[in-house]
Amino acid sequence: xxxxVLLVDFFRAIENDxxxxxxxxxxxxxxxxxxxxxxxxxxxxxxxxEVMNVCKISASSTYHKxxxxxxxxxxxxxxxxxxHNKPSSISLKKILRSS
Length: 99
Hints:
The protein is an alpha+beta fold and 99 residues long. Helix content is 49%, strand content 12%. A three-stranded antiparallel sheet has the order 1-3-2.
């Protein structure tokens, strides 16, 4: 799947999702950007501090709440490492279009 389609589908999906706010959008777009420059397009290995700087979320509690919500809402797959020396695994999910 092309990267552009993934992003367009995300924005189409959130139009009708009242749970999504600007923090979710900023974080998702930041993850998308990391994916563009990643060698492994399907799975990102990232530290929260790397992503927080790009998406402009300064509190780690806000970051973790937001990334967990994106996972719960079905927009990403998030596998936290729980180890400060090992990055977490994050994948952007293909969003199925409703007819």
